[in-house]
Amino acid sequence: MTATPLTVSSVIAGEPAPGTAGTYLSTNPSRTEEVVAEVRLSGRADFTAACRAAKEAQATWARTPAPVRGQVIANFGDLVSANKEALAQIVTRDIGKTLAEARGEVQEIIDTAEFFRGEGRRLYGQTVPSEMPDKQLFTFRNPLGVAAIITAGNFPVAVPAWYIIPALLSGNAVVWKPAEYSAGCAWAFHELLVRAGAPRGVVNLVYAEGEETFAGLEQALDEGLVDKVGFTGSSAVGVRVGELCGRHLQNPCLELGGKNPMVITEDADLELAVEGALFSGFGTAGQRCTSLGTAIVHESVHDRFVELLAEAAGKAAVGDPTQDVLYGPMINERFAERYESYLGWIGDHHRVLGSTGTGRIGAANPREGFVGDAEAGLFYHPVILDGVRADDRVFREETFGPIIGVASYTRLEEAVELANLPGYGLSCSIYTTDPAKAFAYRAGIGAGMVSVNNSTSGAEAHLPFGGNGRSGNGGRLSGVWVLDQFTRWQSLNWDYSGRLQKAQMEGPQIEAQPDFRL
């Protein structure tokens, strides 16, 4: 049964905003004729207006005691938990993520809220001893002000939670611009936040296209309305956002793309490595920033690994995301078209494995064992590309889709060099039974996240998430580390001596006898 399409618009200061920039039809990528949401898009002026509304609401929210702010987060987690299946169904309908993965994504919100529900009672500063008598030193975490959060749609509810929950807990107000193609998810997420007790204007939702968002953000920064920008998306757009924020002496939190390597050593458990590669490379149809880019396999086990991986990919169920499949469709037409351009990077020296065809699955290009109606959606064959070289574009650039490259190495140092070569630094993995190799790899790799005998994908709510190089500017989400993104430290020194004491210029002096010898 086809659900009735939503009609959604931006929400600014608690009120729906009339769309001023046209309408976007968000469709179900597994059944592209089904409209999920009619999105009334806002323009740049609406984005700036939302920032202005957030600025007006933020001061009162910051004065709300932090434990009370934490209760809103607790309420939100409880509401998400109570609506877990419904929200997961919306995720699957919006972006084609399998129900199993969608449920896991919703659980990530619950876990994040669970972690932060008590953090309002632990926004600790420190009492620091002074070098002067009758004087005390203190530190405090203060909110920044207004956080503009711009998120991609491949994790349409988990990633926003990583930003918005700690931002609100810390006393900031939020303007959130989700991807328009995941509008239904954003609507549901915002509704739950409002029902959890988020005050009017503290969370503002803006549906807008990219260039309008950028122009609105630029104006808001010029007017001094935004104090922090959080952006998850492509590295190319991240560079533009970083440059814009730099003009205002702001340090954005940039979570960008990845070309995530998986090294498989000669002593690895190959069956386990294949299982990890299959999930890393093909989960969410390869549309994760943490998806496996290139498997870098020791030459002694290369052929066997490729054989096992090709066999596993060939047998994997692909298709209808509401069924038991490895992955479903591409998120929308834009990603499908871009992925087809990546397939154009396949060269004559590559060996293509993993399926009964390459490209879009359909009657003229069938996939053996496909689940559902291939003609109805944006479904693509899994691709294993053996023989990848370091100078291949498919090795050096992010390929957002169901494609895994395979390269060989001889020495571990060579594998580390290859793993670092593309210049991304988000996630990586190594499969080995030798702890020395695992620690040597960790020490040499530039990625922000390292897994041993596990996939390149996966995060936990209490572990820092983030990348370096082309993958980001070093900011971290999740756990206590994300609080540094949404608070600034303030120091206080309190002198109750009744006179002016000058640090470093006066104070108790200790006399020693440096010439003493036993």
UniProtKB/TrEMBL annotation:
Task: Offer one Pfam family short name for this entry.
Answer: Aldedh
- InterPro entries referenced in this protein's UniProt entry, alphabetically: Ald_DH/histidinol_DH, Ald_DH_C, Ald_DH_CS_GLU, Ald_DH_N, Aldehyde_DH_dom, ALDH7A1-like
Record-linked SUPFAM superfamilies: ALDH-like (SSF53720)
* EC numbers on record: 1.2.1.3
Signal peptide location: none
PANTHER family per the UniProt record, alphabetical: ALPHA-AMINOADIPIC SEMIALDEHYDE DEHYDROGENASE
Q: Which domain of life is it from?
A: Bacteria
Listed GO molecular functions? aldehyde dehydrogenase (NAD+) activity
Say if the entry is tagged with keyword Disulfide bond.
Answer: no
Instruction: Supply the alphabetized keyword list.
Output: NAD, Oxidoreductase
Protein name per Swiss-Prot or TrEMBL: aldehyde dehydrogenase (NAD(+))
Query: Which stretches are transmembrane?
Result: none
Q: What organism is listed for this UniProt entry?
A: Nocardiopsis ansamitocini
**PROSITE patterns of this UniProt entry?**
ALDEHYDE_DEHYDR_GLU
Q: Which family does it belong to?
A: Belongs to the aldehyde dehydrogenase family.
Give the multimer and partner information. Answer: Homotetramer.
Boundaries of every Aldehyde dehydrogenase domain copy:
23-491
